[in-house]
Specification:
Length: 326
Amino acid sequence: MATGKFFREVVLPEQKLQNDNVLFPTVLSPASSASVALTAFKDAIKDQKPWLESLLVNCGAILFRGFPVVSPSDFNDVVDAFGFPEFPYVGGRALRKQVVGRVYTANESPLDKEVPFHHEMAYVPKSPTKLFFFCEEEPEEGGETPIVLSHIIYEKMKERHPEFIAQLEDHGLTYIKIASDEDDPSSVTGSSWKTAYKTTDKNIAEERAAKVGTKLEWIGNTAKTITGPVPAIRYDEASGHKTWFNSLAVTYSVQASERKNSWVELGNGGAVDDDAVKDMLRILKEECVAIPWKNGDVLLVNNLTVLHCRRPLIKPPRRILASLCK
């Protein structure tokens, strides 16, 4: 379907038709079969930004495929072309490394590990509103980044577990993590307090944590981080939907050994319903869309309305980069 002089909408077999008859995600490719210059792509983004933003609100995610984005610097230029302010990754639980400009690795944990579904930084009061991903090296097998519309998860959970949803809406969630002073590269949430708050000074760490709604309690050189209560269900004004905005899947999908250092409670101190969470994990897998990565793909995700995860890599290589926006 033609969408203007530069972009055209294409259909991939993995997309899903949602209740409002919108394909999820939207996939855009160059309208012309002739080769496209990176400068032309950036100019088109700037010229058609209002239309692209409206697409993002309506469908939740846009996959740009077939554009000349080759290097991390190219990706950085594409992100800059959108003009969204950068979101500082302070208080984040994943290990990331800066690559260039506002471009970082997506998650430094071993690629054969799953990263469960989540909204980026849903465990703090203020989260990024948009995420960009870039495929620099496509996986030979596995390693997809599945996405799912958060309001669908909310609606199905409310239908199946109304009492649990009422608890979440009434009390929110409190997230607790025992953060060492050394990173744990084996964990999907392995950042130390020094890395999370970008300092080796405990006082500065406390100040920076407070700015993102987190309290630090010290146990020697280890920090117990406590955030919340924060909402577990949020209302997105732009789309008019309530969303499943939390990190329960991450907490309940990690190995039992990791749960000793990272857990979640209802905001009133009560326990989370394990059976409801197990059902949620099934629903996420049933409803998600997983499009295999291709070199040069750029995926723009509305972090307020869409959850994402990472499937284990079966056959390397895989290099996916990311950028977070306010």
